[in-house]
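Run folding on both entries below.
>entry_1
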Amino acid sequence: MPEPVASPIRILVVDDHAVVRTALRMVIQNQPRMTMIGEATTRAEALDLNSRERPDIVLLDIDLGGENGLDFIPELLSACECRVIVLTGVRDPEVHYRAVKLGALGLVQKERAVDVLIDAIERVHAGEAWLDPSLTARVLSEVSSAGKNKKADPEEAKIASLTDREREVLMLVSEGLKNKEIAERLFISEWTVRHHITSIFSKLEVSDRVELILYAYRHGIAIPPSSRS
């Protein structure tokens, strides 16, 4: 029997600039595994389309004229099982960190190449986190600077509870590898990888891969992309 054809990734674009929406529409339409199911320019339009069309991915601009896209990320996520990727030209690390904490699984700078955005969409749709390396570096500089002034790291006990194998898995997650890739690298099953990741989440008290990656960078468990030679 022929393998079933995978359904296209259904994408909602939320941006108040017509030129950006047109460019994104052209990019998405040229991808055989993706389809654009709607465009929104305001919070009200975004929430309405999101509720009615139930997209897989929402590409969300932060600055929507007089509205802040971050303010309604929780509403988008609660309305359906979509995943949010924030598109931004803003370079404030506090804004990026807030986007992650509110539930965005992806952060992509608007000036990045088309293939970067496509890769981000595919990874986030697959349940992975995708952080633009340059944005990650800015977020880390913000959160790590605050931690340098602490006399004792209250997270030490959590980190010490990780097994050697869990540390290996965490390092590979921080490099952006998917479960299958981690399994192949460590010669273990994908089920075992999922088990380790679940254990890591529990021990470090994080809820998703984005938060885990930032945690690992912040506490020196993994090396940020901008610091790698």
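>entry_2
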Amino acid sequence: MEKTSALKEKRIVITGASMGIGKAVAIALSSKGASVLINSSGGGKNNTQALSDTVSEIRSNGGTASYSCGSVADYNYAGELIQQCVDNYGGIDGLINIAGIAEPSGSSILNIAADDWQQVINVHLNGTFNTCRHAAPLMSAQKHGSIINTGSHAFQGIYGGTAYAAAKGAINSLSAAIAKDLAEHNVRCNVIMPGAKTRLSSGEVFEENMRTLHSRGMLDKQRLESALTALPPEFICAAYEYLISDAASNISGQLLSISGRHLGGFAWPQEKIMAYIDASEAKPWRLETIAEQYQNFAD
């Protein structure tokens, strides 16, 4: 097995890695020399078979891998996961947060249950915070490290649902804050919005949901076609390989996207100032001014 210098001796935790994108990334990075600790919750049932199978596959190809089963939504478990990487490999150089769950089909602000909202937020947003909170001090102390968090185009509200969109938007902001907090310590944090055919993005229910969103004007024809003809996760692993490596040492705080058919990225929004009040006036804003400026901006 060829082990490139870019990832050789890198010690990386990958959450949500028993199947789908996480599994493909774990196999790809280990094939380039990284030591990976993969995680999943075992479907919420602590079923370790998929994790064990992935580790066996990596090891059979000459790679270094181990696994840990548990939910990153549990703050204490997230700490144990990061510590296991340190115990197993002597440190942690990379953290890739991919763990996630789907929001109930057809969910919206009109019908989502509070428990479903909380579960999605816990896994996506809190899970990302939990692992980052435990890994960041270790990376900061050693003056190097790379964190990749998982976003989604859903943060724009274009795919329907509420909790998933909210969690992904919050992960973007959290990642921006992490990148700024850790810049002086030479630790990077970026967001990848991946597109690939996985268990969560295939099947009749998924396809019907995409077509419904298209019919409601929330998904254009190009994005509908892309969603319905997505390529396997193996097509996008190089993005993780690059961003986790030292070759991307100047890239941090970015919102990046990749699928089997496109590469992209989002610029951070910039505030547009509509009007000013002279400091000497010290008067409340007039309703007419607010109405005029907000209407012009909306148009």
